[in-house]
Amino acid sequence: MPSLKDIKTQINSVGSTKKITSAMKMVAASKLRRSQEKAEAARPYSSRLEEMLSSLASSAASGEGIIKLLTGTGNDQNYIVVPVSADRGLCGGFNSSINRETFKLVKSLEGNGKKVQLMPVGKKSRDFFNRVMKDQTIESFVDLNVSSTGYESALNISNKLQELYFDGKFDKCILVFNKFKSAISQEVTQQQLIPLDVSNSEKEEEKENSSNAIYDYEPDEETILKDLLPKNVSIQIFKVLLESDAGEQGARMAAMDNATRNAGEMIDSLTLKYNRTRQAFITKELIEIISGAESI
Amino acid sequence: MATISFDLVSPENLVFNDEVGTIIVPGKDGDLGILPGHSKVMSSLRPGRVMVYSEDKNLIKSFFVSGGFAEINPEKCIVLAESVVEVNSLEKTSIEKEIQELENKDGKEIEEQLSVAKAKLEAINVNYYDKI
């Protein structure tokens, strides 16, 4: 039977853990609001860009150079997978679900005879893939702090990817990230970044087609498309980073909320145990005194 | 007189959104003056000034953009720019320093940065379009 002092120490330590987790929850909640605002602020730009692109995409014939971002290399052999995780833990299944999903994706691609390389973003996936698939990890990006550095960080990743793409190092690029659904739920999503997946913007195209058909282009469609495509890659990455950041804060908030609640329950049950034990000691002492008095 | 709705959007936020009289944007092949009822045009932009005027032709704001795109139709003008700063908030000395530093380096990216920085300097120094 644990002594009273043991239980008291345990209650105190759980109590201080609870304080930490509830503080982390508050911090995550306020960061979540900020991240969400950022993600929302970025939305007009990316949606406009997509609209422009979908109205231009139809005019792109298969071509050389930058147009390849849209049309693909014609091959389907070398893949690059970019898992986007957080830099820090303590956010529930946020990072591990990304790592698991990416791992599954890589294995299934390899099962189909493709060559896969990895370019993890975020410390948690970098560490994981450095451990399990070290020779396939070509580059990693950590400490991005997308909510403070903003677009620059996305630009770095995008430049690196495009450099590799035009060197013919890979044919397809797939992002794996947590899509922000609501403050408490994220969904692991795969998105093909290069070549651009036009199918999901097709609906918009139909809608816009009638009005876009009569645009004048300056200098001309192809030049605009050549400017637009690399920007689109960067902005897609930026969007994903912001979503993932908001998702991370949401996941952390939920995880810390759970932890705080669990700590509270634990303190309750420990306090009950403490009181019972104390009472048991008192009763025991009373019995000893009474039986001692009776025997005289 | 009619107005045209103008959006200036950067990847990070919506910088400007209002009904205005006239806008001048730095198109790749030359500056474009946009009035309400402009025909439909899509243009890419060079680094330069985006000037916004009220209905009675007073300059409301001028921004520096480092490139981007403009989508124009009779009711609306949308400028997507990679980086947007107000011309008033640019500092001459720091840009001059930046140019000096960049001139000592080589490379394709540096060249691009240099042309943007030079365009910034020009945006501060010139004053045409201030009154139209």
Along the chain, the helix and strand elements of chain A come as: HHEHEHHHEEHEH
Main pleated-sheet profile of chain B: 5 strands, mixed
Helix content of chain A: 55-70%
Report strand % of chain A.
5-15%
Distance between the termini of chain B: 16 Å
Radius of gyration of chain A: 28 Å
Mean pLDDT of chain A: 86
Overall shape of chain A: it is elongated
Biggest sheet, spatial arrangement of strands of chain B: 2-1-9-8-5
Tell me what you see in this structure.
- The complex is a heterodimer of chains A (296) and B (132).
- With 296 residues, chain A is of the alpha/beta class.
- Chain A contains eight helices and five strands; from the N terminus they run ααβαβαααββαβα.
- In chain A, strand 3 and strand 4 form a beta hairpin.
- In chain A, helix 1 packs antiparallel against helix 8, helix 3 packs across helix 4 and helix 6 packs across helix 8.
- The two termini of chain B are 16 Å apart.
- Chains A and B meet through helix 1, strand 5 and helix 8 of A and strand 5 and strand 8 of B.
- Strand 5 of chain A pairs parallel with strand 5 of chain B.
Q: In terms of topology, how is this protein built?
A:
The complex is a heterodimer of chains A (296) and B (132).
Chain A: H1 4-57, H2 68-71, E1 78-83, H3 94-111, E2 115-118, H4 123-132, H5 146-149, H6 151-166, E3 172-182, E4 185-194, H7 202-212, E5 216-218, H8 221-295
Parallel strand pairs in A: 1-2, 1-3
Antiparallel strand pairs in A: 3-4
Chain B: E1 4-9, E2 14-20, E3 22-27, E4 30-34, E5 41-45, E6 48-53, E7 59-65, E8 68-73, E9 76-81, E10 84-86, H1 92-103, H2 108-125
Parallel strand pairs in B: 1-9
Antiparallel strand pairs in B: 1-2, 3-4, 3-6, 5-8, 6-7, 7-10, 8-9
Helix pairs in contact in B: 1-2
